[in-house]
């Protein structure tokens, strides 16, 4: 056995150091995932209880150790039930990175390359946003750069229509049967309307209602950018990577959407370059 060093009577192996580092990374990732949600308090509660259990066991307090031991026995099952939402999110994040790899494979195909040349013209969306904001018409618009988000598109009405200012205004008109929920934009097309987005469970400022909460949830669960137009104030906000930036001006909104979409372009160009180097 190869030992790294010794602390008193304790022999520390290299594998123990790697083990500790990996557990630290895992705990940090779990903390990052739970940060800001009520689940983090439950997790702290669990950890405190576990610590007490270890102390009680070391002190050989048989009765209390027995009771806490029983509780710890079902702890894993209880944690799966309590943290089911967070576990889902974690698996979604894992799936997302796998999906990117899937994108690399797909880009090998020539027909896919042709498709990728399409440019997203965001001007109709910006023009519609100005008009919706001026009339205090609520709207939720999801931009997706990597996939058509079938899972979420299927929760609404599938459309596959060309993006236009008039169509966007019509969809979000308060009397339109399609105005509720979100629309999903992918490759210059409105893929679906009336979509239900995942709702964030974080503590959000009081002025944010369900529309903002849904945009936040979407940005936590997927690699998308969501534009929110408030029915109450007409303000336009953007949710991305679990952060909402409110009351943005039109030039800033345009810049952020373009930068989000160009990230996709850059990613694809890098993939193509990698493929060319490899071939
Ligand atoms: N899970 C969801 N997915 C998509 N859209 C949703 C979801 N939940 C609520 N909405 C949309 O949000 C609307 C309700 O918005 P609400 O007034 O509660 O939000 P808000 O954040 O206060 O926004 P506003 O500033 O526009 O009032 C619903 O009518 C519906 O269109």
UniProtKB/TrEMBL annotation:
The keyword Nucleotidyltransferase applies. Keywords: ATP-binding, Cell membrane, Membrane, Nucleotide-binding, Nucleotidyltransferase, Transferase, Transmembrane, Transmembrane helix. The lineage of its organism: Bacteria, Pseudomonadati, Bacteroidota, Cytophagia, Cytophagales. Coiled coil: none annotated. GO terms for molecular function: adenylate cyclase activity; ATP binding; diadenylate cyclase activity. Belongs to the adenylate cyclase family. DacA/CdaA subfamily. This is Diadenylate cyclase. One of its GO terms (biological process) is cAMP biosynthetic process. Residues 84-252 form the DAC domain. It comes from the Bacteria. Catalyzes the condensation of 2 ATP molecules into cyclic di-AMP (c-di-AMP), a second messenger used to regulate differing processes in different bacteria.
